[in-house]
Design goal:
Order of helices and strands of chain A: HHHHHHHH
Distance between the termini of chain A: 45 Å
Oligomer: homotetramer
Chain lengths: 203, 203, 203, 203
């Protein structure tokens, strides 16, 4: 009886969850390139036409590095996790869904930046990172509550991790609101959040 | 002689089959994003235009989570399988083919939902999940018959697994038929099947 | 000195070559779905329009299963290989290049089948499989010559493998030629070759 | 206290960084096929139309083999690295960003080769390889400085590696400049650099 309970609760190894996640991250980050392109080129005017596409390059670089940095933190999170249960797999799936959406919201912001619709586009862009931040925090919190973390992780490290993850909630939340004031300021805030998460968590 | 027979019948490890499958699942799930987009935007009308695209978001979320949940059950199935033989590799290949088709059928349903062709589109959509369910059941059944499952799996667990897999046959079969009555009801049925499969099998 | 020579010649493990190959196979096979679509749909005419696209479905299925079966034979080949040297990595790279080309040649055949250009399209389609067969044979032969195969593989098994790989050279070569007589016959020949390779090599 | 310092500096295993990198390389190399296509086909004129697309085939092959060879050298570099720290993960991320850009710059060169804009397109193409070369050298140098390399690698081998990586800086730098003289010469120079890197580093 106790054995059955144990079997039910027993988390499975993280290996294949990590390899599937790596795949989704790798494809999502590479699909960003499909948004790069050049339009309405006059003969001899390629350099000018490329120059006009700068919002695509800026948003490409911000999105690429942000997804990459999220991957790297995802990697670090799973190094702390000893095993996964079904709810964690599902939370991770929603996390991956929000990663997958980023090439779409990136293309949207690149297309509408500097135009009449840049506020809406920037809000959608920031909202996709907010969703990511929500699911990242939820995954971390679930793993902490269900004691799926590896043995030997101190309560201090655990609460530091949760605090670090939840900072994104405030920054990306603010970026969604600020998008309606200034699309560029909202984009800069998203880039700053990426810089923050680029630093390792153990200090 | 017995040794040769044994060598012929000896299944190979599941490692690379799992990694190839993970890759296909990861790419298929991420390609769904290519269907997201926005068309016919009037200046200042991006929010309205995005709102008009709701069938794309609904079908994107349903398809993403369904593929993710199938992946998770595929993962669980392969944890029970000790080794693969050639027919299992081929059955798994047809399973992956039906996964790959989903971004196409999803785009179709999103494009035609709420129009004159929604019944046909919903039937094709449900049929792609029915095909998936058929191949999933076939893979499971083959593994059970050829004793490719790991030692220590009870006949009860085995028949429970097969029963669970075959439920999809009925639900998705019904969704194909119901599509001609109501496309939305058919889509809801597909979403409910995903919810069912989201719960772990061991209870 | 002998140690240095040994270090030069020492092949590296096959692990990362296999994982990169799995990735390319998985992406190429999934990209095939991008060719599925439907055009010129009259309101209420989706079923008719889908029916008109049958060459896309036939070529999709043939190409998907062929790439999958090649993957499975590639998998089997690498199970026999103990380690890779640089030329083998490069040969494998050309093999992957020819896999990557298949979504393009598949789209071409699907677009031109049943039209004035079907002979050229079928020849290009068969030629992409011929290229694949050439590189597969070359990779196998190199591994055999440089003794990169695992210990314990008999010369009989080795020559059987090489024979099996080289059958594709003749079949796909014939399919290129026959394309100019009948595109459908050429496609059927390509499908038959896939069926041949679907059977395991050890009999 | 010393233990804490040690924990901070302790690099993590390279496994998941390699698998994420393999994924990006595999997707980027396969996305190159999306640039293959054929336009403005007159009935019966497919062969002519395909022949007109030769710049796409040449740049496809050069880019595919170059990305593949970079992957192979990346693989070799990571075989020398015992563990990764956060800066190395970030440098590797920028390296992957420059790999991801290649399908875009390849498409650009293919589209404008033999036209009025070929100089700009060839310069952008060569610049993407220059960026790759810069990040490759930076990653190598960081690993060497922070002693992340495996034990037993001699200073001679280390400086040979760094020298080999930095040759790309000069060749691709020259290719950027020469693009404004002759696009074809610049492309040939990029192809020659790939041939150089195709040879193994240990001689």
């Amino acid at each position: 009886m106790a054995q059955t309970d144990n079997a039910e609760a027993r988390p499975t190894p993280t290996g294949r969850t990590e390899s599937f996640s790596d795949g989704v991250f790798a494809v999502a980050v590479t699909l960003l390139v499909l948004d790069l392109g050049v339009h309405n080129v006059q003969p001899g005017g390629l350099a000018t036409a490329l120059g006009r596409e700068w919002p695509h390059y800026v948003t490409f670089v911000v999105s690429f590095l942000t997804i990459g940095i999220i991957w790297s933190n995802h990697h670090e999170m799973f190094e702390r996790i000893a095993g996964v249960d079904r709810p964690l797999v599902l939370l991770n799936l929603v996390l991956l869904l929000s990663v997958t959406v980023i090439p779409f919201t990136t293309g949207l912001l690149a297309a509408y930046l500097r135009g009449a619709d840049e506020h809406v586009a920037a809000a959608v862009y920031a909202a996709s990172f907010l969703l990511l931040s929500v699911t990242f925090t939820a995954t971390n919190t679930w793993a902490a509550r269900r004691r799926l973390w590896r043995a030997g992780i101190s309560p201090e490290e655990m609460s530091q991790q949760l605090g670090r993850a939840s900072i994104g909630l405030f920054v990306y939340g603010a970026a969604v609101g600020l998008a309606f004031v200034s699309a560029v300021v909202s984009l800069v805030l998203c880039a700053l959040a990426a810089v923050y998460y680029a630093f390792p968590s153990r200090v």
